[in-house]
Specification:
Elements lengths: L5 E7 L2 E7 L8 E7 L2 E13 L8 E7 L20 H14 L9 E11 L6 H15 L9 E8 L2 E4 L3 H6 L2 E7 L4 E11 L1 H29 L13 H10 L2 H8 L4 H18 L4 H4 L2 H18 L16 E5 L7 E7 L2 E11 L4 E2 L9 E2 L1 E6 L16 H14 L11 E11 L4 H15 L9 E9 L7 E5 L3 H6 L2 E7 L4 E8 L6 H26 L13 E6 L5 H5 L4 H10 L2 E4 L4 E6 L2 H15 L7 E10 L2 E7 L2 E6 L20 E9 L5 E4 L9
Parallel strand pairs: 5-6, 16-17, 27-29
Antiparallel strand pairs: 1-2, 2-3, 3-4, 4-6, 7-8, 7-9, 9-10, 10-21, 11-12, 12-13, 13-17, 14-15, 18-19, 18-20, 20-21, 22-24, 23-24, 25-26, 25-28, 26-27, 28-29
Helix pairs in contact: 1-2, 1-10, 2-4, 6-9, 10-11, 15-16
Length: about 700
Amino acid sequence: MEKNYKTFTMDLAGRTLRVDVGRVGKQANGCAFMQYGETTVLCTATASEKPREGIDFFPLSVEYEEKLYSVGKIPGGFNKREGKASENSVLTSRVIDRPMRPLFPKDYRNDVTLNNMVMAVDPSCRPELVAMIGSAIATSISDIPFDGPCATTQIGMIDGELIVNPSQEQWKVGDLNLTVASTSEKVIMIEAGANEIQEEKMIEAIYMAHEVNQTLIAFINQMVAEVGKAKHGYTSCAIPDEMFAAMKEIVTPEDMEAAVFTDEKQVREENIRNITAKLEEAFAEKEEWLAILGEAIYQYEKKTVRKMILKDQKRPDGREITQIRHLAAEVDLIPRVHGSAMFTRGQTQICTVTTLAPLSDMQRIDGLDENEVNKRYMHHYNFPSYSVGETRPSRGPGRREIGHGALAEKALIPVLPSEEEFPYAIRTVSETFESNGSTSQAAICASTMSLMAAGVPIKKPVAGISCGLVTGEGGDEDYIVLTDIQGLEDFFGDMDFKVAGTHDGITAIQMDIKIHGLTRPIVEEAIRRTKEAREYILNDVMIPAIAEPRKEVGQYAPKIISVQIDPEKIGDVVGQRGKTINEIIARTGVKIDITDDGKVSVCGTDGEMMDKAVEMIKIITTDVAEGQIFKGTVVSIKEFGAFVEFAPGKEGMVHISKISKERVNRVEDVLTLGDKVNVVCLGKDKMGRMSFSMKDVAQDVV
């Protein structure tokens, strides 16, 4: 077959990146058939011919599809098809969306879909990275309006050494998981999880990735020059200048400033409702203006807030540029649960509840990364409509909720105790009671306190805070960084830079922006500001509420006793078809987990029953020695004696001559089934059975 497509290659971090254009997917607006090493991802970009009517946002959809055939697996369950998107798929889609969305025209309303289908996975080349690069390529070479290209690089760190585009295994075991997207000039997106990385090292890693991104952008520009399509025209949905002029005659800039200048979200929203009603009345004869009035008011409000902050250095709630809203923290808000805490920052309020369970309750993962098969720590975040004064039915967590939960989870994993130190599966659930900006960071603070209240021996407390940004038209030096942004400053500002960490370093970063990138001074100032803020939150708010983890888990939390047995004795504990272990569970009410290396975890709430179960396990797995005394149950009576079960699945014979010091004519004269008796081991008889004596050991007096 004659080759009728173009192939582009480059060396990227010691591996070959190959892109075929025109080989497949020719009906998409743009298509890149990507191979990095042997990882293969099909990336496409498509756009509708006409704008979607009646919307005031850019309808971009990003999909990351994990096909299990890519790693030689058949999906589990009855259906044997890939089901709904995994958490990793959702998070990857979000990371692709965040740097690319700002590069589309702000007045573009055509539907755009970026689809990334993982078809083969080479463990040395992470498919998520290939999809990120492929989406940028497919869009750049397409006819879809796009102010790119952008590029993405991942950085890991092992033993202090930074690694460009680490393998799946290096990504799993390293001290840094950093993803950075850039344009040709500036950083446009940062996502990081880190094991208390110092701020200076984090900045070094960010700009190492930025430099690698420049080589990728040059590579993409080469493709655009050779195979790129001319960008198509589109119907602009910009607000007419004459409409803005008419609005300002009815609602002056001073009126709008007075409406938004309040620290009460509800008051501000009521003020905007009154302004909307006034303009609706004024424009009653202009149907075309009424159709876009909501977007016009939004933009008017946005310009007013940005002018107040940038030119007058006035924040809507009256705070100073570096001032954090009023903070409060408390623990043990919810009775009976294993741990609870609430963190309040202004009108943002999060309650986190911790639940402890045996390790067998950890989450199983059926994904593409062979190094990621289960999750011991799970953080789930919920954002109900009442938290922002709205009404809508709950349909389960959306992509935003999954993303916020994953960010908090990432921030806390570095400080969790090991399984050996604390053999529990851990779940934290953050419930948003009230929201006015940066709930994800409040969830980190609440979760830290909830874990400590539950008796989880975390290494250090973690706090999170976010910074915002407002830029002007005076070049790279015309900007203001805001500490602790509220909802309005997030909506109308240019950045949401979230950083979580301990006293000693960063554990997570997530940066979203709405402009075409950040300069290095802005990145450095945001990281410095967040460090100052989290030190204050830790020292002045969280530690006074709970200074350290409680020494023991709570009254209602399960207790776990761990014992180590010989792995070859696991079968003895389990028994044929699970008979022995199920008998122990039935007698004691505990839950038992056994790992392949012989680690046995006994979980329960009744300490006496847990001790009894441990004792049974020890008896089963320990070779019985002559002279040992046991308490057993008569389970069978024969003419020549009785069989006594001294542990689940373990029996021994008491010969009729060993039942009593007095002569026994019939066993039934002394023993009945179910009797509890004390026996001493005499060793093995001629048939190899354990032999016991009752007469040589004192019996309990009932």
